[in-house]
Design a protein that fits this description.
- This protein is mostly helical and 163 residues long.
- The protein has one domain.
- 80% of the residues lie in helices and 2% in strands.
- The chain contains 6 helices and 2 strands.
- It has a two-stranded antiparallel ribbon.
- Helix 2 packs antiparallel against helix 6 and helix 5 runs antiparallel to helix 6.
- It is elongated.
- 25% of the residues are buried.
- Keywords: Membrane, Transmembrane, Transmembrane helix.
């Protein structure tokens, strides 16, 4: 049984289809902020440690601390993506088949940046493994939900312009 070769498009340079930093940030920051705030509600209301902190500190101080932590984690994700753009010339060409792994790789990079900031912020004050795992997984999933469609749409647009 032989598999038919996968149809693929001619290669297109990354610079031709990658969305601008501004376009990515305009969608990524609000997405991660919303996810982080929902995670706060889950933490504060559904975990014993969260309820204990809620009783000790009160809702507003706990929320403000969470927003500060969330802001630094988002900054880590954004900084990782900006660093990648700083070292990447955008001249490497990709086929349609390679765009999804590229977007997922950039999502992993952003998740690593957010996780580093989460580790730095935590300082061992919480269940570190849970904090790092949640940060990485949530950032990866929701960054991918922004980057994958952006990259695929940009590639399709560059392909149409080429034709």
């Amino acid at each position: 049984m032989s598999a038919a070769p996968a149809e693929d498009s001619p290669p297109i340079s990354l610079a031709a289809f990658r969305p601008t930093q501004r376009e990515v940030l305009a969608r990524l920051v609000p997405t991660l902020l919303a996810v982080g705030l929902v995670a706060f509600l889950g933490y504060a209301l559904a975990t014993e440690a969260g309820r204990l902190q809620l009783d000790e500190r009160g809702f507003v101080p706990l929320l403000l601390g969470w927003i500060a932590m969330l802001g630094l984690c988002i900054l880590g994700a954004v900084a990782a993506l900006a660093a990648e753009r700083g070292v990447s010339t955008g001249l490497r060409s990709y086929t349609r088949q390679r765009v999804l792994p590229l977007a997922l790789g950039h999502s992993i990079l952003a998740a690593a940046g957010a996780t580093f900031c989460s580790f730095w912020i935590s300082g061992g004050a919480y269940d570190l493994l849970t904090v790092l795992t949640c940060t990485f997984v949530l950032t990866l999933l929701f960054t991918a939900s922004v980057l994958v469609p952006s990259y695929l749409t940009g590639f399709a647009r560059a392909e149409a312009e080429r034709a």
